[in-house]
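Hi P.,

Sorry for the delay on this. The queue was packed all week, but I finally got your sequence through. Input first:
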Amino acid sequence: MGLIQGGRGYVTPQVWGASARFGGVSSILANGTVPSAFNDGSANAPAGTPQFPNMLVLHNSSVQTCGLNLVTRPPWNVAGVDYHVGIAANVTIATGNPTVFTKNNHGYTAGTIVTFYAQTNCALPTAMSAGTPYYVIASGLTTNTFQVSATLNGASINTSSGGMVGSYFHVLMDAFPNNSLHPTLAALSCTYNGTDTMEINGFNVVIEGWDFTLHGGCEVHMGGGSGVDNGASGNVTIRNNKLLAHSGSSSCIGGYMQHTNSNNLITQNELTGVIPGYTGTALITLNAYAGPVTTTITYNLVQNAWSENLILASDTTQGANFVFRYNVLRNCGTGEGPTGGGAHGDWTQFQVNTGCIMNSIIGEFNLWLQDADSLNPSTKAGGQGITWSPQGEVDIESYNYNTVVVAPNAEIAPAFVGYDLHWSKVFTLTNNYITRNSGYDDSTPARPASDPSLTYDWGDDPANSPKGPFNGTINGYSPPSAWFAAGYPGNNVDMMTGNVNVS
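Then the structure:
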């Protein structure tokens, strides 16, 4: 990723290096070209096991995660399938009595409350439970090693009974011990309202290694209050945290980004939106109120959103850049239907308010997955996929090299939705691999099986556009003045049939 100097600081699409192949799958793209080595994120992925190792198994629906019969797959390494996303493995466990944990420079003191989690295909020792608070004890405490007890100042936990599987585990600290803000977070200029929100009020702040799920969930929020242009925070990094949307807050991570020339990073987090009794409008909700602001979102596991997984917006005339790569965005719209209050889900929704500017939005090498029903038994979870509804200027939009999978029992219709694309100057949608299974749509239960649940729908009205006809490109193809219904070619691949230029 690079920034073009001058102007408003556009984020440019990635430029690739040398040629590559993946596991015997030809790296020839849908348009027939042979790309350079894919910058697919695998080289710098967090340590751990992939969450969905069988998601792209070919020619075997009994093994493929969603029961689909795939005939082809992307030629690059896919997030969550070929490499781990979310919190990096950071602790080793030597079972016995006592049990010794090793984490370099852990920084814990006696009494620190920690939690442990096992990654995919791994298991903690039988005597331990994931997400259970444990207390660091003074015995055996060194710079890199520690022991824990089930009670404050108690005996070291005994794992002699075994049961541990694998070696990929992570340990986190309780952000709110005794329902109070941890002193380390307070020292970083954070504040906590005691129920559902932690505000980040400083600059160059790193929030890393915290468990925000233990007290009913919490929103981690960057900047001041809603719509307050006070430059309260900037250059924030949120990394290796576990978050749960609280019933009283709208997001796991939120922000009114108000500091000019700020660069924010959200990476290697695990965010969950729906646990029975909990909600959350969007799991990540970010709005730029001053600019140019660049926010990069990478290697996150974002799943089970009540409505949207991700909302990115610009409310500034100075411009904003959003880059999201190497993430897994799983299950939107779990609150759809009467039981869920009629939530309408999108994997991702982008908004630009009237008179405002979005310099660039780059979405590449993500896995978009819908494999769950809604909380309402009479409806299916879902909605639309990647949705645009700008009312202001958008200079660069790029959605390339993504993988889209929808299970037969789930609903996404369609996968890419663009409204008012006449605001866009440059638009590319190329070399995405999708499953065009029929899926399910509550609004049209009689829809024919031949009507794919994944398509591109450009619901625009150029005749009434103050910006005139759409002047961008879709995979190098400019729609005619008659505008888009469906079916324009686009170098995108149907993994169910192997067909190219699907729509």
